[in-house]
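Hey forum,

I'm writing up a methods section and want to include a predicted complex as supplementary material. The small molecule is flavin mononucleotide. I've pasted the protein sequence and the SMILES. Can someone with a working setup run it? I'll credit the forum in the acknowledgements.
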Amino acid sequence: MFWYHEETKHSYASVRRHPNRLSWESQPNVFKQYPETFVRYTFDIDEAEDNFLYHIAGINAKKSYPGVEYYLRMNPSAGALYPNELYMQLRGIEGKPNGIYHYDVAASALTLLTQLEEGEGLEPYLGYREQMQGYLFLVSSVYWRSAWKYKNRAFRYCLLDAGHILGAIEAAALLKPHATMVRYDMDRASLNRLFGFEKREWFTAAAAVAVPMRGSSVTPVDFSLPYVEAAGTFESNETIERAYEESTVVNGCKRDVCAPHFSYRKEQLQEAICKRRSQREFSAEAITKGQFGYLMEILSQPILSDCEERVNVYVVVNRVLDMPIGLYRDGTYLKYGDFSHKAGYLCLEQYNLATQGALILFLTSSGENYQALYQKAGIIGHRLYIAAEYLGLGCSGIGAYYDDEVNTFLENDDMILYALAVGR
Ligand SMILES: Cc1cc2nc3c(=O)[nH]c(=O)nc-3n(C[C@H](O)[C@H](O)[C@H](O)COP(=O)(O)O)c2cc1C
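Reply by user p_vandermeer:
Happy to help. Structure tokens for the complex are below, copy them as they are.
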């Protein structure tokens, strides 16, 4: 097991020994913005390409409490801290020069960071030998945004949230429709340097919504960008920095070239993407066996990627009509019992989600490539959120659980990556 995972386990004793106190005065900013001198292209959501981009990470709700206002997005994020930033190369997209852009969520715009000369691009850093027409996305983490609250465990949240962005790219691309290929085998060190991140932000994955331009060649683009403060405040965290460095090089990766199949209707999918929220409590009503089957079918679909890691999906069935309660893995019935209360306890006593929900899922892995397997758990989580919303159900991610006790319950010694609840 990766030492970082072992070191950041929660237990009943650890959360009581180290209660989480937040220093509100150093609360990080969730929006990165490049200086005004950079050219911005504000989204026109009536235009197809901007509409696609808006559906990945655009703001879709505003919450107001006395003295505070905050904005929620298409993609969920643990604690609404949004540690990730999204960059992209555009090639051959109507209305915008070929170039490298930053997704400015606050302004609902793309900021042009640098234009591409003929024959150059980011492709070689991602292992492509030909020019790719379309979008090459790069997902980064500004880890302090999450570490401010979640301390050393924040690297896990950065990866899950990054996986959700990859899942959000995949969902929005289905509207085009276009397949999404996730890439983990990339030259992170060079890319981090080019973008001027100074170790406060780093890339963890890329995704291509693009097609190769057969017969073309491409040379690596070289540019330099100024460091831009993304969070307003910063405190370094040695554990997280070391975890990132030591999980940066991928090993023994297998490609998954099987395309997933989704039977979504476009209008309803678009609605589900826009309406997606985390449900805070459930009504304790059952879901149907057909809905359960539909969700499991979605989760069993392959993910196109250059570094496939096995992620196991355990499901605690609490309330599904005509299905025995108990624990299942990948469709196999493992043990009978009413585990709703147990699951609530395991998720750091979040009984509101687990006891009233119809299903609680635990995603686990014994894989080797930590960044790839953790982000894959986030992609699966995102697929679940979207599919649940599509069926008129609710979903919530759960990043906090008593790791070793979940292992005892599941009777395995995998790394526990993520829990999720689904219900009415
Ligand atoms: C990785 C991850 C972990 C989360 N963990 C929890 C959790 O333990 N408990 C909870 O109530 N919500 C959890 N959430 C839900 C977030 O708080 C929610 O996504 C965020 O507030 C934004 O709201 P929205 O999803 O409605 O857009 C989690 C979300 C993600 C993506």
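Some notes you might quote in the supplement: The chain has two domains: 3-246, 268-423. The chain has 13 helices and 17 strands.
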